[in-house]
């Protein structure tokens, strides 16, 4: 994700475009009351605010420039990829939510890793071009671990 806008003038087009991108990105990390941690210069991820208020804060106070990896908003090394839609135009699932559903089925029905690999293989072939799915059970688990989704809990 491009973050160069953070250091641009708050009145520039790039800045407001960047803010929009950020807000779209963090839309997924809302808490139960629909709020997110505010990364503006005065809140510095200490307070939760509505998306609307966060936007206002970022526009008026500026974005906290030390906040380079948006880990408080769901970003880590793989997040840009995972937060992406499952395939272009897919409204029902994100890549991650689809994988979670799939993996849950695997656990419920005690599919073997090998059978799950085979399923992934045919799904990758069947879905539209641009679909991002891990290719193996191992990759799925790695992904879930990276997001601390507690696959061990699901597994138990
Ligand atoms: Zn703020």
UniProtKB/TrEMBL annotation:
Recorded superkingdom = Eukaryota
Ranges for domain Transposase-associated come to 3-75
Which Pfam families does UniProt cross-reference here? Transpos_assoc
Q: Which PANTHER family match?
A: OS08G0208400 PROTEIN, TRANSPOSON, EN_SPM-LIKE, TRANSPOSASE-ASSOCIATED DOMAIN PROTEIN-RELATED
The name of this protein is: Transposase-associated domain-containing protein
Organism per entry: Dendrobium catenatum
